[in-house]
Every structure is written in structure tokens, then in C-alpha cells.
Amino acid sequence: MSNIYKSEIKFLTPLNIETKTNNKKCYLKKKNINYIDYKNYYILTNFLNEMGEILPRRITYTTAKQHRILKRAIKRCRHIGLLPFTTDNFKFK
């Protein structure tokens, strides 16, 4: 009888459950964009919301340096007239 009980005892092994990885990655790194050009307005539209406002860093996951360059490029693009300052429901896609 003791042999039956010993064979039925199974020790639990830790499960190989992968933890959730931090997939927050910048759009610029995903697309491998090294230089942000203000004349390239279709890339800059990804960093604007429907009203034409610049999205914050916590949403776009850009670094502080990239975000400063990005803001400067968007403002230059608006100044020469490629992007509007404010709109209602604006998206180029």
C-alpha cells in the first residue's frame, strides 16, 4: 500500500509562464528613423491628435531629446504651411 501512495505523490514544478515584457517602444525606433525632417509631414502627423495638438512623451514613448526635436519640426512644418495649427477631426492617413 505504501508503494501506491508514493507513486501518486507528484511535486509541483514552477510553471514556465513568461512575464509581460515592456513593449513600449518609440515609433521612431520601430521605423528606424534617425533624422526628423520638418518637410516630411506624413511622419509628423503620427505625433498629432485629431485636433492637431502635439501628443505628450508619455503617449508617444519618445525620449526627451527626440521629443524636443520633434516639437521643433512640427512647429516649423506648421509655420511654412504643411500642417495646420488647429483643425476639426484631422488625419492624413
What does this structure look like?
It is a single chain. The protein has 93 residues and is an all-alpha fold. It has one domain (25-93): Ribosomal protein S18 (30s Ribosomal Protein S18, Irregular). The protein has five helices and no strands. The chain has helices at 2-8, 27-30, 41-44, 57-60, 64-79. The longest helix has 16 residues, at 64-79. It starts with a helix and ends in a 14-residue tail after the last helix.
How many angstroms does the end-to-end distance come to?
A: 73 Å
* CATH architecture annotation name: Irregular
Counting structural domains, the number is 1
Summed over residues and divided by their number, the pLDDT gives a mean of 80
Our estimate of the beta-strand percent is under 5%
Supply the key terms.
93 residues; mainly alpha; 30s Ribosomal Protein S18; 0% strand
Brief overview, please?
The protein is mainly alpha-helical.
Layout: helices, strands, pairs:
Blueprint: H1 2-8, H2 27-30, H3 41-44, H4 57-60, H5 64-79
